[in-house]
Amino acid sequence: MDPPPVLSSAFPLPPMSYIELFSNDNISQNNKILQPPPPIDGPYDLFGLFVNGIDHSEPIIRPLAAQQIQRVYTRPDDYKGELKKLCFAILTNYLDLLQIVSRSTLTPSTDSGNITLREQKLNEIELLFINIHHLINELRPHQARETLRVILEEQKQQREKTSEKLYSFLNRIVDVLNSAVYSLNDLVPKTSN
């Protein structure tokens, strides 16, 4: 006969000292409950990288000019059209890069003296990708609002369905009670005065 299987968990059990802190008495008295550490202000080390901290005075999505990056799209309000243009520009630059690589990798650029034509095309493609990435990041707040709107609409529909079910159950209960009252009235003998 096989031994019973040993149950195991992917995570270790929590330390008993933490479990004991969250007893019903401690929670009701709000004693000895560990508070989360305060947010870190200033520079800190994150996964081996040095981070200067979050500057709340700056916008979350910084403009390309503030990052010393050239903006190649013309109309920032037409996201769909500009993304299509940038994708088409990446495709044409990629085809140009293939043509350059098929001929020679060391062709000097006419614009810049010390970089090759291949490196220039790679830099142009990188700039286009950065601009696409920036446009997509500018759409994130709109996406978040739309997602929240859809979630709230679904919750509203769910609540309406629940209330409709509740009213239908209430109507059924009232009908059952009325029929019970009528049947009781029929069973009660009538007394004549």
From TrEMBL:
Keyword Nucleus (UniProt): yes
GO BP terms: regulation of transcription by RNA polymerase II
Domain of life per record: Eukaryota
Keyword annotations: Activator, Nucleus, Transcription, Transcription regulation
Alphabetical list of SUPFAM superfamilies matching this protein: Mediator hinge subcomplex-like
UniProt keyword Transmembrane helix present: no
InterPro entries noted in UniProt: Med7/Med21-like, Mediatior_Med7, Mediatior_Med7_sf
Record's subunit section: Component of the Mediator complex.
Protein name: Mediator of RNA polymerase II transcription subunit 7
